[in-house]
């Protein structure tokens, strides 16, 4: 009877000596399971609304919104693929083999890396819009932004392969028993390419944007900028760009707060055990950022609220709804 009970606790009962034991979920884990499932559904649904809004309504087909669309796609995949996979793996044995295990870890790295690179592109967009407003329409075109978005995902794929190279080269090499799916990464490469370089670029660009915004605010207060009609129009345009910069600055700031704990631990030389509560919390915080972005849009973008109303009431099914006045 005892032997039968022990076999029931194994992932692969036929492999008595090499099988992992089935994970046991504490009572508190049940509540956490439902909470994480709710966050996953919210992340998927909210980012899907952003994707539909920007894709459907022609007024929203701008260069900045195309970058927001890129970010929303990566956030949507976090809710649809990454979160559910983490929830399932935490409470079950791994039965899909070593090769699928390797791919399973590759996808989150690509998606999360794409989010970081999207933030860099958004910062560059705001930098050009604020610091070089007259050149912005010529320098930042839809065609160039589409190319940058494609390069963003290609770059994310390449560096994710580099980070997980050992894991992909020989899948399952770090598993201690059958039914386990663990990995080891090139942590230094991940830290530099997915955190230090993007964060450095973002901070430098937004410091420049902040300095220009302050100087513009002073110029407006002293009425220096309103000398001619052309300058007046430039100031009006800059006000809208500054407002967009503030909104996207909040998105970037939230991104930094969610990603910094995990990478700062690595930066200070601390080690995070895979499967520990600290690793689970920091991973969840990174993923939760994908849920927060559309919430920020809802509070700060009137066009997003209007687009959501048209979507949930199925008014987008009407003919020529893509031409609706959203702005």
Structure description:
This protein has 11 helices and no strands. The chain has helices spanning 2-8, 27-56, 63-91, 97-131, 136-139, 142-163, 165-169, 187-221, 229-267, 277-300, 302-312. The longest helix has 39 residues, at 229-267. 74% of the residues lie in helices and 0% in strands. Helix 4 packs antiparallel against helix 9 (229-267) and helix 9 packs antiparallel against helix 10 (277-300). The N and C termini lie far apart (70 Å). It has a single domain, classed as Rhopdopsin 7-helix transmembrane proteins. The chain is an all-alpha fold and 327 residues long. Residues 1-5 and 225-237 have low confidence and may be disordered.
Biggest sheet overview: none
Give the amount of beta strand, in percent.
under 5%
The CATH H-level homologous superfamily: Rhodopsin 7-helix transmembrane proteins
Task: Round the Cα radius of gyration to an integer and report it.
Answer: 23 Å
The percent of residues in helical segments reads over 70%
Tally of individual helices: 11
> Which structural class do you get from the secondary structure elements?
mainly alpha
Within the CATH hierarchy, at the fold level, what is the topology? Rhopdopsin 7-helix transmembrane proteins
CATH class call: Mainly Alpha
**Shape type:** globular
What pattern of helices and strands is seen along the backbone? HHHHHHHHHHH
Summed up, the domain count is 1
**Regarding quaternary structure, how should these chains be classified?**
single chain
User: What's the architecture in CATH terms?
Assistant: Up-down Bundle
């Amino acid at each position: 009877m005892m032997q039968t009970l022990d076999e029931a606790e194994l992932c692969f009962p036929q492999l008595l000596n090499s099988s992992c034991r089935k994970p046991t979920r504490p009572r508190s884990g049940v509540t956490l399971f439902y909470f994480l499932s709710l966050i996953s559904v919210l992340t998927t649904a909210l980012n899907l609304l952003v994707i539909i809004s920007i894709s459907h309504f022609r007024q929203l087909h701008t260069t900045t919104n195309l970058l927001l669309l890129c970010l929303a796609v990566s956030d949507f995949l976090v809710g649809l693929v990454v979160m559910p996979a983490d929830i399932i793996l935490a409470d079950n044995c791994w039965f899909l083999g070593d090769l699928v295990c390797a791919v399973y870890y590759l996808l989150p790295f690509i998606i999360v890396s794409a989010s970081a690179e999207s933030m860099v592109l958004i910062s560059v967009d705001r930098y050009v819009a604020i610091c070089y407003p007259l050149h912005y329409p010529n320098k930042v075109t839809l065609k160039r932004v589409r190319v940058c978005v494609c390069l963003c995902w290609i770059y994310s794929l390449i560096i994710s392969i580099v980070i997980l190279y050992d894991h992909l080269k020989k899948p399952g090499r770090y598993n201690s028993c059958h039914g386990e799916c663990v990995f080891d990464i090139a942590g230094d490469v991940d830290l530099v390419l997915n955190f230090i370089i993007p964060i450095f670029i973002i901070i430098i660009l937004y410091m420049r944007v902040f300095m220009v915004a302050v100087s513009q605010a002073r110029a407006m207060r002293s009425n220096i900028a309103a000398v001619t009609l052309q300058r007046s129009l430039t100031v009006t345009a800059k006000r809208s760009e500054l407002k967009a910069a503030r909104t996207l600055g909040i998105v970037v700031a939230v991104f930094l707060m969610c990603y910094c704990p995990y990478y700062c631990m690595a930066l200070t030389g601390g080690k995070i055990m895979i499967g520990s509560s600290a690793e689970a919390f920091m991973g969840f915080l990174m993923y939760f950022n994908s849920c927060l972005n559309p919430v920020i849009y809802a509070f700060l973008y009137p066009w997003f609220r209007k687009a959501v109303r048209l979507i949930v009431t199925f008014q987008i099914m009407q003919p020529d709804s893509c031409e609706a006045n959203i702005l």
